[in-house]
From TrEMBL:
Protein name from the UniProt record: MA2A2-like protein
Domain of life per record: Eukaryota
Domain Glycoside hydrolase family 38 central, chain residue ranges per copy: 374-456
UniProt keywords, alphabetically: Glycosidase, Hydrolase
Gene3D superfamilies: Glycoside hydrolase 38, N terminal domain (3.20.110.10), Glycoside hydrolase family 38, central domain (1.20.1270.50)
Organism listed in the record: Mya arenaria (Soft-shell clam)
Length: 473
C-alpha cells in the first residue's frame, strides 16, 4: 500500500459527489469469452448496535422485527435469500423466540438461503480497538453462531467500517474464514485499483513472504452500501431497484424481443425493456471493474426490510424484473438470481478455475478513509474518555478471565462457578458491543455514547466482582 499511496493523484475538484459515483472502468480488463453475466441479488439489512439510537432502542424499534420477518418471509418466499452480520442482535432476539422459530431460523441457515456473514459480535471498527478486543468479540460471536446455528462463517462482510486494518484479515483467516469483502476505502485508491483491475487481490501480511496467511479480498465498487450504489455508477438508475419507493413493475408477460418501432405493444412490457436496458448497462459498467462474469447486487441498507410491506414489495418486483431478464437472456446476455455472499464467492472461484484468472497480492492497510472530500481521521482520537474506559475494561476482563481459570482448578461450589461465568459473559458481550464501528469510534449520538459508557461500567463491575468472588472462593 505504501507504493500505491506514493503514486496517487487526487483530483477532487473535477468531480461533484452529489452527482453519483464515478464509473471506474479498467482498460486492462482481461478479455473473457462473451459469456452470460450472472447477477446475484443479495438482500441484506445493516443493523448498527447503536448509532442514532441505542442498541436496545434499535432492537425494539426495528431489528427485532427484521429478524422475525427473515424467518416468516424466507419461508413464504422459498427462492429468496438473506444475509446477516451482527451476532449480538441474534443473541438478544434468540432468547425471546420459541423453539419452533429457532428451529426455522436454523434450518434457513443450514439450507444456505440465510448466510451468517462475518458472524462476529459486531462489525467492529478496525482503527481504534486493541487487537485482543477484536479477537474477543470475534470469539464471542463465532461461539454463539456455532453453538446455536451449528455453522462456521465463511465470508466476512465489512460494508461500513471507516477504513480497514491489515490485522483483521489475518484474524479472520485464522478463524477459518475464506474471503473478505471491504468497501469504504480512500476514493482515489479505489479508483486506482479499479483502473488497474485490482479490486480483487490476495491480502498478504508484511511478515509473510510465502503467503500462507493470504486471504482473498474483494473491494466492492462505489461508495455506499445502499441500493443507490449497488448496480452501477448512476445512483438515480440504481435507486429504481428500490421498490419500497418505486411503483410496481408491470405484471404483463414480457415480450421475447423489443418491439420494432411503431408496433402496438403492451405499454408495460415496453417499459420493462427500457427499464432493463438501462439497468443492464449499469451492470456492465460495474462488472467491467472485475475479471470475471459475475456481479453481486447488494439489495438493502441501514435497517432495511423491517416491515412486511417492504419485504413483499421488494420481493414481488425483484422477481418480476429477474423473470423478465431471465426470459430474455439471449437479448441482454444477463442471468439473475437471489443468492448470498457465499454464493457470490463460490461463483468467482468457479470462474477462476474455468478461465485461469490470476490476482495481484496487496500488503498493508486501508487507512485513511475518505468520503467525498473529507478525511476520516477525527475518530481516531474523539471521545477519549470512552476509548480509555474501553481499555480499562479490556484489561480488567483479561485479568478476571485468567484468575477465573486458575480459581476453577480449586474446589468451588457450582453456584459460585455459574455466577463467575455469567459475570464474565456479560462483560465480554458489553465490551464486544463497544467495538462496533459507531461505538469506540465516537461517531454515535451523545445519548448513545452515554449508553455505551453504562454498558462498559456494568462490564467493569462484573469483572471486578469476578475477581473478588475468586478471592473469597
Ligand atoms: Zn454501520
Amino acid at each position: 500500500m505504501n507504493d500505491v499511496l506514493d503514486k496517487l493523484k487526487i483530483a477532487y475538484n473535477t468531480w461533484n459527489p452529489s452527482v453519483g459515483n464515478k464509473a471506474i472502468v479498467s482498460e486492462n480488463n482481461q478479455k473473457l469469452p462473451d459469456d452470460v453475466l450472472e447477477v446475484i441479488v443479495i438482500p441484506h439489512s445493516h443493523n448498527d448496535p447503536g448509532w442514532k439510537k441505542t442498541y436496545q432502542q434499535y432492537y425494539e424499534d426495528q431489528t427485532r422485527q427484521i429478524l422475525s420477518l427473515i424467518v416468516e418471509k424466507l419461508h413464504e418466499y422459498p427462492d429468496m435469500t438473506f444475509i446477516w452480520v451482527e451476532s449480538c442482535f441474534l443473541d438478544t432476539w434468540w432468547a425471546n423466540q420459541t423453539a419452533d422459530t429457532q428451529q426455522k431460523f436454523r434450518s434457513l441457515v443450514k439450507s444456505g438461503r440465510l448466510e451468517i456473514t462475518s458472524g462476529m459480535w459486531v462489525a467492529p471498527d478496525e482503527a481504534s480497538p486493541h487487537y485482543f478486543a477484536l479477537l474477543d468479540q470475534m470469539i464471542e460471536g463465532h461461539y454463539w453462531v456455532k453453538k446455536n446455528l451449528g455453522v462456521v462463517p465463511e465470508s466476512s462482510l465489512n460494508f461500513d467500517q471507516f477504513g480497514y486494518s491489515t490485522t483483521m484479515p489475518y484474524l479472520v483467516k485464522k478463524a477459518g474464514l475464506k474471503n473478505v469483502l471491504i468497501k469504504r476505502i480512500h476514493r482515489a485508491v479505489k479508483e486506482l485499483f479499479g483502473s488497474e483491475n485490482k479490486l480483487n487481490f490476495h491480502w498478504r501480511q508484511l511478515w509473510d513472504p510465502d503467503g500462507k496467511d493470504d486471504i482473498f479480498a474483494h473491494v466492492d465498487t462505489y461508495e455506499w452500501m445502499s441500493i443507490s450504489d449497488s448496480c452501477g455508477p448512476n445512483r438515480e438508475i440504481c435507486n429504481k431497484l428500490d421498490f419500497l419507493n418505486e411503483r410496481d413493475l408491470p405484471m404483463a408477460d414480457a415480450p421475447k424481443a423489443p418491439a420494432p418501432p411503431g408496433a402496438r405493444v403492451n405499454a408495460g412490457s415496453r417499459n420493462m425493456h427500457a427499464f432493463t436496458q438501462m439497468l443492464v448497462e449499469q451492470f456492465r459498467l460495474k462488472n467491467a471493474n472485475y475479471k470475471y462474469k459475475v456481479m453481486m447486487l447488494p439489495h438493502g441498507g441501514d435497517f432495511r426490510y423491517d416491515t412486511p410491506f417492504e419485504w413483499d414489495k421488494q420481493y414481488r418486483n425483484l422477481k418480476r424484473f429477474m423473470k423478465y431478464v431471465n426470459d430474455n437472456t439471449k437479448l441482454y446476455n444477463v442471468k439473475m438470481r437471489f443468492g448470498t455472499l457465499k454464493d457470490y464467492f463460490y461463483e468467482i472461484e468457479r470462474q477462476n478455475m474455468k478461465y485461469d484468472i490470476k490476482y495481484p497480492t496487496v500488503t498493508g492497510d486501508f487507512f485513511t478513509y475518505t468520503e467525498n472530500t473529507e478525511y476520516w481521521t477525527g475518530y481516531f482520537t474523539t471521545r477519549q474518555f470512552d476509548k480509555r474506559l474501553g481499555r480499562e475494561v479490556l484489561e480488567s476482563l483479561r485479568a478476571a478471565e485468567m484468575f477465573t481459570s486458575l480459581a476453577f482448578t480449586c474446589d468451588i461450589p457450582s453456584d459460585v462457578r455459574k455466577e463467575m461465568i455469567a459475570g464474565l459473559v456479560i462483560a465480554r458481550k458489553n465490551l464486544g458491543i463497544f467495538q462496533h464501528h459507531d461505538a469506540i469510534t465516537g461517531t454515535s449520538q451523545e445519548h448513545v455514547a452515554k449508553d455505551y459508557e453504562e454498558l462498559l461500567t456494568i462490564a467493569f463491575s462484573k469483572t471486578q466482582r469476578s475477581n473478588v468472588t475468586k478471592n473469597s472462593a
